[in-house]
Every structure is written in structure tokens, then in C-alpha cells.
Design a protein that fits this description.
The protein is α/β, with parallel strands linked by helices. It has a single domain, classed as 3-Layer(aba) Sandwich (Rossmann fold). The protein has 9 helices and 9 strands. The strands form 2 sheets. A 7-stranded mixed β-sheet has the order 5-4-3-6-7-9-8, sandwiched between helices. β4, α5 and β5 form a beta-alpha-beta unit. It is globular, with a radius of gyration of 18 Å.
Length: 280
Amino acid sequence: MHQKNPFIGDYDFESLIQSYPALNDFVFVNEYGNKTIKFGDKQAVKALNKALLKVHYGILWDIPENNLCPPIPGRLDYLLHIADFFTKSSIRLLDIGTGANLIYPILATCHFNWECTGSEVDLDSLKNAQKIVSNNTFLKKTELRHQKFKNHILEHIIQPNDVFDVVVCNPPFFKNQSDAEQKNKRKFENLQLEESETQNFGGLNNELWYKGGEEAFVKKMALESVPFKKQVHWFTSLVSKKESLKSIKRAINKTDPTEVKVIDMEQGNKKSRFVAWTFH
């Protein structure tokens, strides 16, 4: 985990529960004598997120039952590594597929005081994201845009007068519904969790899968980045599968960028990464 991540240590469940009492229903003492939650339980993860955002940032947050529930420490890690790209503190961020959870604009605004814009295909998710903005004064400058064309990523979102320092994206990981269900089942078998505890982070169709998976999504994003190379300094995207990097980097290099980076991240036992490219 990034050395500047405030979630690098154990959670202070006492203060979290004090601020958000509903979290107490999900907290238990494990075999090592430590307080924790079942991270395979979506409701527990959601309650933990509510408490973390309230205690650390004073944010009132909620998402519908079926939407993606993101792990906050890992999402902040992504932004902390991006912050290392810049020497300036005033950053304009565009979040592609911000979802109902709005997590990147929330963390970017609250932790760094960046100026944020989020795009989203699903109107119901966009409506919930707007509700979060409306309920929190500190997020009032966050701009939300509807991507009306499901086959496009950056096109129709980045406008002629826009200038962004960075684009972030958590792409749909899976190729289709059956791919998502199969890999999700394997994950929870490895974790020895009950069937009722699967899909701990939830997710709608457009949040979880895209034809061709994340590899196809990031390749298309690279292709669409070319017309906007003068308007965006860094284009970035999470990549869940390490084996996809070679093909993704090859596609990015075809767009003739001046630099391509792969940043490795680690949160506990989980290893992840993001790819970044620039034409500047």
C-alpha cells in the first residue's frame, strides 16, 4: 500500500462504530483476537465504507443494493500513485464510469482537493451519484456527465474546451455475465465462503462486464485517447489481469505516446496495477 495511505494500518473499529453504529452488526473478533468484518459480505463492506467516509471525510454516502461497492483503501491507493505524477497540487480529474458510488471524485475531492468530473452510462447510477453530490456540500463542484453512447468511452464526454490533468478508470473486468459468475464462484471457493456471501462488491452489468473484457475496453480507450491528446496530460486505467498488460501496452504504443507506465500496487494479499500513458 502507498506509504501515504491513511488506511495502511488496522481499522479503528471503535471510532468507526461510534460514528456509524450500524457497522457494529458486522464486526466480530477473529481467531487472532482482532476486530474485523467478513469481507465476503456485501452489506458489511457497505457499512464499513459508510463509516470510513463519514469518519475520515465527513461524507454521507449510500448506494443502491445492486451497485458496485468499492474497497476504499485500494481506490485511494490508485489516486495516491497518480498524485506522484504531478508536482502541482491543483489537478483536474475525469473519472470514466464513475458509477453510483462516485468513489474516485469523492476521494480526489476530499483527500486532495482536486476538481472532478465523472461520466456514467447508466442513468440510475448517475442519479445516485448526483444524490451523493447534493447531500454533501464539499462535493458541490463535482460535475457529472451522461455517456449516451455505450460503445464510446472518451468520445462525447470530453468537450472541445475541456482540459484534464488525468483520466482514471476502473474498467469492467469480465467478458460477459457467465465469465463474471464463473470467476466470482472460483474466488469465493478459494476464500471458503458460503454461496450467500458471493458478489461482496455487487455490480450491475455495465460495471462488471464489457464485450472482450477489460483488455478490449482499455484498448478502445487508448484508441479514443488520440483525438484528446492535447486536452489530457495522463490517461490511466486499472488492469486486473497481469497477463493482459502485454497486449494492452502494445495497443497503447500504436497510438505513439511519449511515455507509458505500469504502476504496481499492493493492498494486503491483493496485487493490482494500473497503466498510464501520455502524449506530452
